[in-house]
TrEMBL record:
It holds the Pfam family ABC_tran. It comes from the Bacteria. This is ABC transporter ATP-binding protein. Keywords: ATP-binding, Nucleotide-binding, Transport. InterPro entries: AAA+_ATPase, ABC_transporter-like_ATP-bd, ABC_transporter-like_CS, ABC_transpr_LolD-like, MacB-like_ATP-bd, P-loop_NTPase. SUPFAM superfamilies: P-loop containing nucleoside triphosphate hydrolases. Residues 15-253 form the ABC transporter domain. The keyword Lyase does not apply. GO terms for molecular function: ATP binding.
């Protein structure tokens, strides 16, 4: 039986998956990685999908972001049925509405931090001056203002990941997808990265979907979906987030 996780709010979820199934074939063996999976991801929150290695987290993220098609089921992102979009429309959707952060940073070795962040903005058609301004603001937001002229080889792992986050943030996407963003980082840098992702959701209203097997991230998310063997097993709000949310609603006198 599939787990059905509905949003408790009346707002339309930013992402919706209904009975999503995905299998891979290796040789003669077909293995099902996602089993009729149904979930909603609420807008403006940092949702963490946690679970052991191989349980299907990255596959789910790739399907929800339109990078991979599902074998069966429906996926809606910002109200668009992804399987109904042509390849070109899907590429346009991803360019205009989504940002990605990956475990391996995916930076160009020859470009400075500033150039890395400007590049997708030029693909989006932003004028040069506007692209530069947005890139600088994003790099400053992740604390890299003084290091924006440096290339990846001159940056630490944590700084490289912050460049990747600034690159995604500068696009001002409604949806930000992060696949194991902290797993190449030590504890302190992992904490900085997840705090930045959380702040982006809070301050910009961005829907942030992060998949990770790193248990240290659980307390930093607004919502945690625990996954195992291609199914969502539980859906909860971590205690730390409940405290933060009630403090945000009730400012002290
Ligand atoms: N393109 C592919 N072809 C064949 N099998 C695949 C493919 N992509 C993923 N798989 C398999 O699907 C299963 C789920 O992989 P997935 O990467 O989604 O898991 P994960 O939970 O993200 O793991 P990790 O935490 O290690 O990144 C794994 O058994 C993997 O080997």
């Amino acid at each position: 039986m599939s787990a059905v996780l509905q949003s408790s709010s009346t707002a339309t979820p930013a992402l919706q998956a209904r009975n999503v199934r995905k299998s891979f074939v290796s040789g003669r063996v077909e293995s099902t990685v996602l089993h009729d999976l149904t979930l909603d991801v609420r807008a403006g929150e940092l949702t963490l999908i946690s679970g052991p290695s191989g349980c299907g987290k990255s596959t789910l993220l790739a399907i929800l972001s339109g990078l991979q098609p599902a074998d069966a089921g429906d996926v809606r992102a910002l109200g668009h049925e992804l399987s109904g979009l042509s390849m070109r429309a899907l590429e346009h959707f991803r360019l205009q509405h989504t940002g990605f952060v990956f475990q391996g940073f995916n930076l160009f070795p020859a470009l400075s931090a500033l150039e890395q962040v400007e590049l997708p903005l030029s693909y989006m058609g932003l004028a040069k001056g506007m692209a530069r301004q947005r890139a600088i603001e994003s790099l400053e937001e992740v604390g890299l203002g003084p290091r924006m002229q440096l290339r990846p080889a001159e940056l630490s792992g944590g700084e490289k990941q912050r460049v990747a986050i600034a690159r995604a943030l500068a696009k001002q996407p409604e949806l930000l997808f992060a696949d194991e963003p902290t797993s190449a980082l030590d504890a302190a840098n992992g904490q900085i990265v997840i705090d930045i992702l959380h702040r982006i959701a809070r301050n910009h209203g961005t829907t942030v979907l992060c998949v990770s097997h790193d248990p240290r991230l659980v307390g930093h998310a607004d919502r945690v979906l625990a996954m195992e063997d291609g199914r969502i097993l539980s859906d909860h709000v971590p205690a730390a987030s409940q405290v933060a949310a009630s403090e945000a609603k009730e400012p002290s006198a």
